[in-house]
């Protein structure tokens, strides 16, 4: 959770170089003033870690619920090493919030395990727009920065572990 003690744009460790890494970013169009700020943060962090512009692909989907399939499209149709999923769900008067949050959390977990590919969870689940803006470049930092950093760290870890297991080929679709 973003709290007064933790700023989303400050990382616990120094990031590895992302110069050789490729990323897909899937962005929800709902709450665009928030999600476009998350996108800016994610791209800024990737670039700061050395990722070339041409290694970053951005695709938009209608809402947070569609992030799962957007991430799967990246896994299926492109050569990216990781996907960064960015969205913002704001609590309303109905239970829609719960269903979207549950769906995207479970969906992204399933896609990353199925594809053996890191998918960073850059989704804000908040009570109101101010809480979202506070975490999209406001006083609590930017969830897009945090998600991009997580993606870089997980790709680095995967490459390191793959290199230490030379008899195995990196298998993207580990489960059929
Ligand atoms: C329908 C809906 C609602 C009520 N709220 C949000 C939201 O706060 N954030 C968001 O990203 N998307 C929302 N959506 C849209 C759903 O994610 C989805 O796009 C639609 O249900 C169509 O599948």
How would you portray this structure in words?
- The chain is α/β, with parallel strands linked by helices and 176 residues long.
- 43% of the residues lie in helices and 19% in strands.
- The chain has a 4-stranded parallel β-sheet, with helices on both faces. Strands 5-6 form a two-stranded antiparallel sheet.
- Strand 1, helix 1 (32-48) and strand 2 form a beta-alpha-beta unit.
- Helix 1 packs across helix 5 (143-163) and helix 2 packs parallel to helix 3.
- The longest helix has 21 residues, at 143-163.
- The mean pLDDT is 93.
The number of strands is 6
Assign the structural class, choosing from mainly alpha, mainly beta, alpha/beta, alpha+beta, or little secondary structure: alpha/beta
Mean pLDDT: 93
Query: Which strand order do you get reading across the main beta sheet?
Result: 2-1-3-4
User: SSE order in H/E notation?
Assistant: EHEHEHEHEEH
Estimated helix fraction: 40-55%
Strand portion, in percent?
Answer: 15-25%
Spans of at least 5 consecutive residues whose pLDDT stays below 50 are: none
Tell me the quaternary state.
single chain
**What's the end-to-end separation, in Å?**
34 Å
Largest sheet geometry? 4 strands, parallel
What global shape is seen?
globular
Please work out how many helical segments DSSP would assign.
5
Rg estimate, integer Å: 16 Å
């Amino acid at each position: 959770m973003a709290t007064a003690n933790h700023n989303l744009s400050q990382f616990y460790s120094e990031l590895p170089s992302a110069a050789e890494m490729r990323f897909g970013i899937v962005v929800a169009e709902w709450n665009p003033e928030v999600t476009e700020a998350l996108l800016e943060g994610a791209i800024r962090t990737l670039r700061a870690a050395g990722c070339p512009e041409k290694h970053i692909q951005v695709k938009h989907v209608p809402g947070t619920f569609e992030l799962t399939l957007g991430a799967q499209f990246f896994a299926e149709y492109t050569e990216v090493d990781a996907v960064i999923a960015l969205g913002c769900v704001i609590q309303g008067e109905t239970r829609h919030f719960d269903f979207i949050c549950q769906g995207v959390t479970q969906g992204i977990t399933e896609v990353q395990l199925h594809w053996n590919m890191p998918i960073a969870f850059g989704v804000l689940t908040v009570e109101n727009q101010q809480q979202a803006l506070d975490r999209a470049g406001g006083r609590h930092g930017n969830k897009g920065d945090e998600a991009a950093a997580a993606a870089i760290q997980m790709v680095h870890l995967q490459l390191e572990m793959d290199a230490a297991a030379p008899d195995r080929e990196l298998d993207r679709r580990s489960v059929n």
